[in-house]
Amino acid sequence: MAVFWKPMAAGLLLTVSLTLLGWGVEVQGGTQAKKVVSGEATVYLGQDRDIWRPIIHTASNLSDISSIKSTFQLRTFDPEGAIFYGDTKNGDDWFVLGLKDGLPLMQFSIGGNHVSAEGGPQLNDGKWHKLEVSNQNNFVILDVDGSKGLVVGMGGPSKQTEEVQTGELRLALGGILIDKEKMMIQFDPKMDGCVREGSWLNLRAPWEVEVEELWPCYQDIIPGSFFPGTGFAVLNTSVFPVEDGKGVNIEFRGNFTLMHGTILSIRAPGQEIMLTLMADNNTQEVTLTFGSEKISMKSDDLKKLVIIFEEEMLQVLEVRAKFQGLQIKSVRNSGFLTTWRNGRIAFGGLLGEGEDNVGSQFLTGCLEMIQVMGRDLDLDLTVKHPSIVSHSCPA
Ligand SMILES: *[C@@H]1O[C@H](CO)[C@@H](O)[C@H](O)[C@H]1NC(C)=O
Ligand SMILES: *[C@@H]1O[C@H](CO)[C@@H](O)[C@H](O)[C@H]1NC(C)=O
Ligand SMILES: *[C@@H]1O[C@H](CO)[C@@H](O)[C@H](O)[C@H]1NC(C)=O
Ligand SMILES: *[C@@H]1O[C@H](CO)[C@@H](O)[C@H](O)[C@H]1NC(C)=O
Questions:
Q1: Which ligand is nearest to the CA of 63?
Q2: How far is the CA of 206 from the centre of ligand 1 (A)?
Q3: Which of residues 162, 194, 217 is at a domain's end?
Q4: In what helix (H) or strand (E) does residue 310 lie, and over which residues does it extend?
Q5: pLDDT tens, 78-94?
Q6: For the residues of 247-276, what is the DSSP string, one character each?
Q7: Cα of 64 from ligand 1 centre, angstroms
Q8: Which of the residues in the chain have pLDDT under 50?
Q9: Do 287 and 241 lie in a common domain?
Q10: Are residues 229 and 308 in the same domain?
Q11: Is the same domain home to 78 and 117?
């Protein structure tokens, strides 16, 4: 076990860095032109692709590795995703650092022994955190912002004392290079986050980019779901079961003056659309349409909008910056429960007629919070267009 350990740890410790605009050097590799970036590059991890595939990766001979430490910075509001991967022996021995519930999660397998550990500080607060992964004797150590984050030890005597120092070490960001079934703790790898200023062991070789073009990391971000106007997120309303006698609340927060397009639509297949909520940045109004009823609201100092469905009534609550109080508008509601049980709910677009989730009038803007029945909605759990960023908006 010790055998592989040193180089492995070394793998962990790599650093990557590159400035936002520094991508895109073309290198001729055989017949194919491959894009490469420096290990110090700023890399957005949440880009659209096959979700387990890394954004960038590199490889090096184990014999070239002399450091056991990798450092990098991470910034995210996303509680879950894959950050950093390393392996040797073509993936027989591997290491993955990710987040789950906002906490660091390390999983690795060395010589067939699986280890996983979760803990340390909450990292998904949208601030840059400095992470350092190192290996000392039989321990893997994750330091966060200069303090001990997570220490994982591997027990038992080493099976071999002679280290095999040949072969290849592979590193990847934003995904893994082995079968996802090998993860002991399952997680959703897609990470709406950024890594920068990486220093990966002592490796200086450029990293290969797996995607056509790297998406940017914004200078400043705020929590929320960002809709660029090219698609929507759809759910079956049945995922939010309604208890008898109880209603349904849907709450939105954000700067409504900056939004344009459909915020919400609800429809049962084969029926007329039940409800739409649209923002218009020209008229500076948000309009709720429910059957033949229309409620228009000035968007200028609107901070929060709550739609409450009750058995016989639909209410809209407006919370504004200038008023302490609420404005409540009500319309009669019948048949809502039937649609709710069979229908679909879309955020950021207008549902089409059929079952095939064709949408239109997509939203441009940031929904800083979406809550259904009092709970934050994670758009990663919906069927959503890849252009939608689920946990952060450019500020
Ligand atoms: C590893 O070493 C071999 C032989 O020295 C060399 O051909 C190969 O290109 C090296 N690989 C990497 C990734 O540096
Ligand atoms: C909604 O449910 C249907 C059948 O129950 C399923 O085929 C479909 O994929 C679901 N749609 C979404 C958006 O989850
Ligand atoms: C919304 O954005 C506009 C333009 O940036 C800004 O002037 C306004 O103060 C914002 N409104 C709120 C409620 O934050
Ligand atoms: C309204 O939003 C659209 C889509 O983002 C944008 O193209 C347009 O410039 C905006 N118009 C105004 C008046 O802000």
A1: 1
A2: 14
A3: 217
A4: none
A5: 999 999 999 999 999 99
A6: -EEEEEES-GGG-BEEEEEEE-TTS-EEEE
A7: 9
A8: 1-31, 158-162
A9: yes
A10: yes
A11: yes
